Amino acid sequence: MPTEQKADRLAVRKTYKLFVGGKFPRSESGRSYRVHGADGEFVANAALASRKDVRDAVQAARAAFGGWSGATAYNRGQILYRIAEMLEGRRDQFADEVRTARGGSRSAARADVDAAIDRWVWYAGWSDKIAQVRGNANPVAGPYFNLSTPEPTGVVGVVAPDEPLLGLVSVLAPAIVTGNTVVLLASAAHPLPAITLAEVLATSDLPGGVVNILTGSVAETAPWLAGHADVNALDLTGVADVELGTELERTAADTLKRVLRPPYAEVDWHADPGPGRLTAFLETKTVWHPKGS
Amino acid sequence: MAFEYAPAPESRSIVDIRPAYGLFVDGEFVAPADGESFKTVEPATEEVLAEIAVAGPADVDRAVAAARRAYERVWGPMPGAERAKYLFRIARIIQERARELAVLESIDNGKPIRESRDVDIPLVAQWFFYYAGWADKLGYAGFGPDPRPLGVAGQVIPWNFPLLMLAWKIAPALATGNTVVLKPAETTPLTALLFAEICQQAELPPGVVNILTGAGDTGRTLVEHDGIDKVAFTGSTEVGRQIARSVAGTRKRVTLELGGKAANIVFADAALDQAVEGVVNGIFFNQGHVCCAGSRLLVEESVAEDVLDRLKRRMTTLRVGDPLDKNTDVGAINSAEQLARIRALAEIGEQEGAQRWTAPCPLPDRGFWFSPTVFTDVTQAHRIAREEIFGPVLSVLTFRTPDEAVAKANNTPYGLSAGIWTEKGSRILWLADRLRAGVVWANTFNKFDPTSPFGGYQESGYGREGGRHGLEAYLAH
Q1: Residue B429 in contact with partner chain A when CB distance is under 8 A
Q2: Residue B434 forms contact with A (CB below 8 Å)
Q3: Do A291 and B467 touch (CB under 8 A)?
Q4: 3-state SS of chain B: helix, strand, coil percent to 5?
Q5: What is the distance in angstroms between the Cα of A125 and the nearest Cα belonging to chain B?
Q6: pLDDT per position in chain B (477 positions), as tens?
Q7: Cα separation of B187 and B246, whole Å?
Q8: Which residues of A touch B (CB under 8 A)?
Q9: Which helix (H) or strand (E) holds A282?
Q10: Taking the CB of the first residue and of the last residue of chain B, which one, N or C, has fewer CB atoms within 10 A?
Q11: Residue numbers in B near A292 (CB within 8 A)
């Protein structure tokens, strides 16, 4: 018996939670906050992450680091490309979310989504090339084999910019493609596309814990991330408040984290990103070995 | 009590071989201008598989013109990111149709399904995936800020790794913005023709890839055509010389990947069982139809007897036969012509005084077969130590010192690859510095990866394929 479509069907709403260790938990604090669209209308409640959530996320990221950094570059590239494929399948959904968050035209939102998909593809291609561009054999003056290769730095804390999807992808993809794992603080103003992106990540063969996404107040959570001894690097691209940025840099100095500073000028997210965001979170390892019969 | 292997044949039903194939020009299958054709046979059964078109001069003209049009109007001006997307699509379709391609490759070439399934086809997909990623990053590859494509590439490939050689040629050419006219080998055209269908499935713009089947004449016409900017050839050193001669005085760029007579050097301190496994893989992989095959075993005198005993024991366990059987180690020789050449050189080996030993294995009644064979008491002057046999035949020589190993390994006009087996790291690197070979494998052999450059010194050709270096052959800078 065919069911009749009711015009006034009551919609099933989505609960936006955190993304930690491949799962979608609520904040352990039980808190949430109201997220509004560009038009000022209420859209949904988002989880308000706490210090404990930061620590859980760092733990998950650390646990995932061995496997992810040990995966072949080819494998990581395949997975990033898979993320692009999954995102492509949800173009309309993301265009809607981007437009709700930021306003503007539908075509502008679509252009952002398309650029975000293409950015995953661009970084997928870097997986097995960055070592060929940034590594090399060193002709030392002696009977030694000497080779420098880039390696991921470890767990990277990322403060995502407010640009709802393209900015988010532009900071996330380069951090993970080289083998780092990430704890990402989503834009406080536009957290919802980040959690929807987590649904894409969770269905793309990306191992749980490689990307962990927290929503809530960046001003509250970022200092915990900057001070956490098991975080190796910090990307402050999304920190607009100069004072907060400086404070985070200072905190990070205690554990000598590598810091990608907040941008001085407004970022054009549609421009060719170059490899700078890859190299910001890479170490160079040089291996010596004697030569002799 | 004897243990027997039960047959474990891979199903042929996955492939659909048409009775006849045309040429792939400008995005479509077309009949050759003068209607000529030849038959391609299955080397394991000698049965005819399909009727294949022969491309004549008019067809080459047409294909080169289509490639030129596609280069000027579509593929050359296209942003790298868009070219990348087409190549990623091709990589994905190859992954999706991997089993079909593997079975077809084994039927047409005679190689064991285990190799086409686990080596050839996965590498083909990987090659396209890797070069796809370069298409929008060429400015970072170290060839200047804005390296440009060359134009139309004429590419001629051999029968030993039909689809893999196609990928080595087409993936970097397309990633860098060139268009191609490719001629697969006369005896192995089928996977290239299936690849043409994959280009259609990927909606690759017409003319970007053109596939012309035929024999040596077709290849020569293509290479000598005025309308191409680049020649890429993999095959025999003899044909390589002809090509180098034919491009003299033109502005065509050339890369040649030719023959080899690689030394696999085993030191007394090597892990001998692993070394023997590597030696077996080095010469019997793909029936020895490998330009970088380790066809000369140089073994340190003090362990020579031990190594030979282990080698013979291992060789008696090799299974020769049906390429589609998943337990087969060594498949069919690709053609009657190649079988005759292997037999002739093996006979010369005996006549010149080397000791022949052949693994005792039953061979099928029909098809082209040659049992894994090893020659001892070989001197450096013997033809089986100097000439590329391109079959499952290993020549064994000995050495006493590392310097002697270097001298013997380098005593060849070739220089494609070499193998080193020792537990001593410093010796590996010392020896690698002294070997005149483009690829040196240490404690492994016959490893290939799209990120890793491949190509030879001396008469093994020039230019490198694979890796960042592989881009250079297709860029003007």
Answers
A1: yes
A2: no
A3: no
A4: 40, 20, 40
A5: 4
A6: 667 889 999 999 999 999 999 999 999 999 999 999 999 999 999 999 999 999 999 999 999 999 999 999 999 999 999 999 999 999 999 999 999 999 999 999 999 999 999 999 999 999 999 999 999 999 999 999 999 999 999 999 999 999 999 999 999 999 999 999 999 999 999 999 999 999 999 999 999 999 999 999 999 999 999 999 999 999 999 999 999 999 999 999 999 999 999 999 999 999 999 999 999 999 999 999 999 999 999 999 999 999 999 999 999 999 999 999 999 999 999 999 999 999 999 999 999 999 999 999 889 999 999 999 999 999 999 999 999 999 999 999 999 999 999 999 999 999 999 999 999 999 999 999 999 999 999 999 999 999 999 999 999 999 999 999 999 999 997
A7: 24
A8: 73-74, 77-78, 81, 118, 121-122, 124-129, 132-133, 143, 145, 274-275, 289-293
A9: strand A282-290
A10: N
A11: 426-427, 430
Residue corresponding to tokens 């509250």: A220
Interface contacts A/B by beta carbons within 8 Å: 68
Residues 6 or more apart whose Cβ sits within 8 Å of residue A246:
none
Distance to chain B for A134, nearest Cα, Å: 10
Please provide the DSSP assignment of B344-379 as one string.
HHHHHHHHTTPEEEE------SSS-----EEEES--
Interface contact B427-A293, CB threshold 8 A: yes
Contacts B89 to A, Cβ<8 Å: none
Classify B314 in phi/psi space as left (phi over 0), alpha (psi -120 to 50) or beta.
alpha
Contact A150, A178 (CB under 8 A): yes
The strand order across the sheet containing B48-53 reads B20-21, B48-53, B37-41
Query: Residue B372 — φ and ψ, nearest 5°?
Result: -55, 130
Asked if the Cβ–Cβ distance from A125 to B84 is below 8 Å, we say: yes
Catalytic residue among B10, B115, B257, B459: B257
From A274's Cα to the closest Cα of chain B, the distance in A is 9
Q: Find all residues with CB under 8 Å of B351, minimum gap 6, and list them.
A: none
Q: What is the DSSP string of B52-65?
A: EEPP-HHHHHHHHH
- Give first-to-last CA distance, chain B, whole Å: 67
B468 touches chain A (CB under 8 A): yes
DSSP letter at A23?
B
B425–A129: do the CB atoms touch at under 8 Å? no
B257 is catalytic: yes
Helix (H, G, I), strand (E, B) or coil at A260: strand
Quick one: residue B175, left, alpha or beta (phi over 0 = left, psi -120 to 50 = alpha)?
Answer: alpha
Query: B134 and A125 in contact by Cβ < 8 A?
Result: yes
**pTM of the full structure:** 0.95
Do A128 and B451 lie within an 8 Å CB cutoff?
A: yes
Minimum distance, in Å, between the CA of residue A224 and any CA atom of chain B: 37
Burial readout A87-126 (b: 16 or more C-beta within 10 A, e: otherwise):
bbebeeebbbbbbbbbeeeeeebbbbbbbbbbbbbbbbbb
Could you tell me if residue A22 is left (phi over 0), alpha (psi between -120 and 50 degrees) or otherwise beta?
Answer: left
Instruction: Identify all chain B residues contacting A121, using CB atoms and an 8 Å cutoff.
Output: 81, 84-85, 88
Contacts of B426 in chain A (CB under 8 A): 289-293
Angle at the Cα of B434 (from B428 to B439), degrees rounded to 5? 70
Confirm whether B291 is a catalytic residue. yes
Inter-chain contact A74–B126, Cβ cutoff 8 Å? yes
Question: Residue A137, Cβ neighbours under 10 Å: how many?
Answer: 9
CA B225 from centroid of its chain's CA atoms: 24
Whether the Cβ atoms of residue B170 and residue B204 lie closer than 8 Å to each other: no
- Are A132 and B451 within 8 A, CB to CB? yes
Check if the beta carbon of residue B12 is closer than 8 Å to that of residue B49: no
> Can you tell me which residue has the tokens 């790298």?
B80
CB B166 within 8 A of CB B194: no
